[in-house]
Design goal:
By secondary structure, the protein is an alpha+beta fold. It folds into two domains: 135 residues, 3-Layer(aba) Sandwich (Creatine Amidinohydrolase, Chain A, domain 1); 223 residues, Creatinase/methionine aminopeptidase superfamily (Creatine Amidinohydrolase), CATH 3.90.230.10. Helix content is 33%, strand content 22%. It contains nine helices and 19 strands. The strands form six sheets. It has a six-stranded mixed β-sheet.
Length: 370
């Protein structure tokens, strides 16, 4: 007889239980968040109403939630035991009952995206329990993406690529930074993203600030334009940065651009299972430093991505975590010259058996826009 196929969520809850037991923990508490969605398939935004998922070390799950939301659970791949509460009831009473039904709660792991006010209330309700950070446990599961997750991320990456190509095919000189960002957002919506992730358009000297807040500066001939944006496709994020140039670029810009492009390529080629996050960062950083711009590379080389736009693993000095097949992260070195311009090139990559694969394919060469 063939066994029924286990849903991804069931496998994830089983993985949580295994890690709880290995760490000597009894229970995981997760509030509405990307972790909540990862384990249940239910999208939920944090609010003033308590809603939490509980997973025991034995693999049982329970959900405490407002009674009027109970029907949302009916079609989940894994249906947890429900402890609904009415508007005039204390939700912590249901939480205490759920914990008793699940068994021991001497040591409780807490998801990193649970609101602090709810953690304080839960600590009071479970006064005999000890609490620890559940972030590392969840990150260990989430860092390695499944084939279905990667397919969603590939689709998101294609939408991001198409948006860039559509925008640079149009005149941008004389438009404001905010107008260009609006063009990008329109293209992303048409492409099928479910949610937009803000974005940066920094022209000229504004591009020398890595996290510049897009404003109303008009783009002029001679401006480098740092364009960084992303969004979600079926809850999975894309992220991309390109630096086109308005009109013919100077020799200095071409030189800086080439250094960033070659540093990004060198870091990409260094990726393979077993190398450390910090070693990938070092490849890009050393290349830029050797060419005289080390002090102008102001941030880490990359960040993990998936259900969150920034998640583990982080490509930064001091992070000795070895990368593994299925991990996804950005590679985005940059050079920022104060008062003049910035250059950043960012792709999302996935670690493969023998190296890495890019989830962005739009040109990394200098794009000259009118």
């Amino acid at each position: 007889m063939n066994r029924p196929v286990e849903s991804e969520q069931a496998g994830r809850i089983r993985g949580v239980a295994e890690r709880l037991r290995a760490a000597g923990l009894d229970l995981l508490v997760v509030g509405p968040s990307s972790d909540f969605y990862y384990l249940t398939g239910l999208v939920g935004l944090p609010s003033e109403r308590l809603k939490v998922l509980l997973v025991s070390s034995q693999g049982e799950s329970a959900m405490v939630l407002p009674a009027f939301e109970a029907s949302l659970v009916d079609h989940l791949p894994v249906r947890p035991a429900l402890y609904p509460w009415e508007e005039t009831q204390d939700p912590l009473v249901g939480l205490q009952r759920a914990v008793r039904d699940l068994g021991s709660a001497r040591r409780v792991a807490v998801g990193p995206q649970l609101w602090g006010v709810f953690l304080l209330r839960i600590q009071q309700a479970l006064s005999e329990s000890g609490f620890v950070d559940g972030g590392p446990l969840l990150a260990e599961l989430r860092m390695r993406k499944s084939p279905s997750e990667l397919e969603l991320m590939r689709t998101a990456g294609r939408i991001a690529d198409q948006a860039y190509l559509q925008v640079i095919a149009q005149p941008v000189a004389s438009r404001t930074e905010r107008e260009v960002l609006g063009m990008i957002h329109d293209a992303l919506r048409r492409g099928g993203l479910d949610r937009l992730g803000g974005g940066i358009v920094g022209a000229g000297a504004n591009g020398a600030s890595p996290h510049y807040k897009t404003a109303d500066r008009r783009i002029a001939a001679g401006d480098a334009i740092v364009i960084d944006y992303g969004g979600q496709y079926r809850s999975y994020w894309c992220d991309i940065t390109r630096t086109p140039h308005a009109g013919p670029p100077s020799d200095e810009f071409r030189r800086v651009y080439r250094i960033v492009q070659e540093a990004q390529q060198a870091a990409f080629e260094s990726v393979r299972p077993g190398v450390t996050c910090e070693s990938i960062d070092r490849v890009a950083r050393d290349y830029i430093t050797r060419h005289g711009f080390g002090e102008h590379f102001l941030h880490r080389t990359g960040h993990g991505i998936g259900l969150d736009g920034h998640e583990e693993p982080y490509l930064v000095a001091g992070n000795a975590l070895p990368v593994e097949e299925g991990m996804t992260f950005s590679i985005e070195p940059g050079i920022y010259l104060p008062g003049r311009f910035g250059v950043r090139i960012e792709d999302i990559v996935v670690v493969t058996r023998n190296g890495a694969d890019r989830l962005n394919s739009s040109t990394r060469d200098i794009a000259i826009v009118s």
